Structure to design on (560 residues):
């Protein structure tokens, strides 16, 4: 077999940044000329995170092939060139589903179906499925060592070392080394315990990544090395950093990639980290500053808007600009003054979302952006909110709404298209009773961009492909009523049936898209819509809390 494998586990506490660590290791290996793929196992029983509340799980990341996956896949795509899809993320639910289906089909020939070997074999199969086309497969096991749920995954990766050979596999364990103020010391005990738990189930880590607020001294490294049975050089400081894009550089400085290629006996050149150095330099020394208000429902958990957050940062990088993000609760927006909540914002963004709560607040934010000529970017529900706002307040359709929120509205400008053709050209039907898990337009779809538009200026292309995740669509019955009043449909599906991008004629920068561009922004290649939105915001001085425009004029349509 061509591939080598790196398995990443986590200990002590969750949220140590295992996904970022895996993505950064991927980036380092690519910088040495290797081809890589990544795989994430999620120990929960849901079949996918699609039906989970963002407060529980954070963002649902959508891949080209329409899989609803863990947000770590977003990190993988933003840091590396690996293309993620359905085969890069499996949950316990999916693994059991596959095994139970096989059992029903009689594929186990009457045997007793058990966790070992049937579930573990299914897991191993998923790892090996990725092996043929790349030099290195990086497998991240979600959860924390010691959880009941992750045991079958850990057992499977344990077995893989005997199956594949020691020289082809490396185990990395990410732990926490806390600094205890009262003792003035870094403490290694949690790490010792976590590695002990890992060894009890038969995995001896080769490398220990220690998340910490300060550099580990040689003495601390020696202690961890002694108690955890790893070489001293294999104890790596994963120090907190200012920007997440520094992680690959910090890992390299600690010698992580050198250790890995040595352990796995891979011959590569020195890594080329110049693009990462340049990126971090740009992030740390921006020439300009802008402030963007994100008006949404899940603002209390930043993970809910992970890709969006990063795409805005990337848009800033493209403009040599730091982006201050202000998350505004759309429910508060319903009750309080828009001018006060949006004070100082040079750009307003309404992201995707589901459900009624806060919708009027989002529509109010759109109105504020439209009337005050503040650059506006509406994504998915944010585009739908812009359509509703325009229909109500400009086109005179006072009761306009989305049928998602008001089934009886007389002007359903956004509605449930009962019949549509999916990516595989299969006709899909749905109504309000359809199964929530299965009726969305998901994954990549083409869109034709009109030449005289903000969208064309951004993409500089007539045909684009973007990722979708929604049920409702623009209602074509209202095209005429809206265009008559200055509304523009600048992106349509190639057959002209689905409205994908909307703009306003008389506004410096106002754009809504039915798709989610944030899923395709890369730190080295910022998404053009985010780049242009940030650029437009730089030309805007915002308004003060009394609603008066500050001195200075918003830049022209081109965004300056
Ligand atoms: N709730 C809307 C729909 O289903 C928007 C979804 C979204 O913003 N991702 O169409």
């Amino acid at each position: 077999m061509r591939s080598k494998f790196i398995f990443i586990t986590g200990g002590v506490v969750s949220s140590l940044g295992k996904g970022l660590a895996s993505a950064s290791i991927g980036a380092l290996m690519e910088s040495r000329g290797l081809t890589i793929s990544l795989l994430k196992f999620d120990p929960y029983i849901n079949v996918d995170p699609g039906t989970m509340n963002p407060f529980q799980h954070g963002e649902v990341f959508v891949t080209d092939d329409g899989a609803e996956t863990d947000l770590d896949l977003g990190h993988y795509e933003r840091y590396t060139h690996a293309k993620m899809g359905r085969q890069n993320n499996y949950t316990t639910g999916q693994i059991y589903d596959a095994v139970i289906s096989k059992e029903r089909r009689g594929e186990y020939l009457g045997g007793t179906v058990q966790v070992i070997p049937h579930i573990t074999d299914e897991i191993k199969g998923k790892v090996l499925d990725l092996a043929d086309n790349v030099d290195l497969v990086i497998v991240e096991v979600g959860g924390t060592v010691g959880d009941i749920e992750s045991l079958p995954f850990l057992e499977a990766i344990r077995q893989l070392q005997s199956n594949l050979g020691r020289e082809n596999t490396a185990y990395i364990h990410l732990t926490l080394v806390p600094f205890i103020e009262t003792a003035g010391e870094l403490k290694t005990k949690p790490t010792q315990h976590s590695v002990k738990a890992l060894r009890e189930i038969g995995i001896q880590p080769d490398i220990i990544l220690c998340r910490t607020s300060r550099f580990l001294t040689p003495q601390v490294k020696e202690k961890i090395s002694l108690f955890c049975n790893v070489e001293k050089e294999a104890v790596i400081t994963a120090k907190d950093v200012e920007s997440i894009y520094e992680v690959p550089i910090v890992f390299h400085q600690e010698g992580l990639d050198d250790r890995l290629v040595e352990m796995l006996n891979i011959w590569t050149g020195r890594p080329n980290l110049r693009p990462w150095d340049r990126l971090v330099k740009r992030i740390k020394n921006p020439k300009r500053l802008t402030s963007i208000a994100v008006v949404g429902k899940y603002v209390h958990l930043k993970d809910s808007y992970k890709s969006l957050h990063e795409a805005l940062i990337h848009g800033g990088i493209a403009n040599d600009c730091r982006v201050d993000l202000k998350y505004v609760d759309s429910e508060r927006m319903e009750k309080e003054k828009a001018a006060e909540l949006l004070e100082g914002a040079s750009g307003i963004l309404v992201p995707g979302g589901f459900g009624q709560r806060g919708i009027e607040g989002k529509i109010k934010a759109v109105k504020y952006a439209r009337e005050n000529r503040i650059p506006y970017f509406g994504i998915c529900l944010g585009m739908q909110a812009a359509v509703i706002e325009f229909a109500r307040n400009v086109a005179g359709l006072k009761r306009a709404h989305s049928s998602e929120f008001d089934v009886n509205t007389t002007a359903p400008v956004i509605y449930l298209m009962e019949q549509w053709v999916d990516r595989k050209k299969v006709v899909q039907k749905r109504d309000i009773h359809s199964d929530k898990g299965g009726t969305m337009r998901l994954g990549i779809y083409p869109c034709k961009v009109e030449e005289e538009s903000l969208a064309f200026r951004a993409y500089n292309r007539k045909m684009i492909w973007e990722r979708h995740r929604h049920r409702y669509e623009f209602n074509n019955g209202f095209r005429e009523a809206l265009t008559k009043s200055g509304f523009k449909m600048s992106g349509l599906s190639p057959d002209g049936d689905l409205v994908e991008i909307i703009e306003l004629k008389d506004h410096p920068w106002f754009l809504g898209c039915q798709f989610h561009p944030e899923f395709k922004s890369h730190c080295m290649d910022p998404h053009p819509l985010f780049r242009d939105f940030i650029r437009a915001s730089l030309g805007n001085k915002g308004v003060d809390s009394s609603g008066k425009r500050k001195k200075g004029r918003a830049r022209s349509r081109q965004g300056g």
Remarks:
- The chain has two domains: 9-279, 286-414+475-538.
- The radius of gyration is 25 Å.
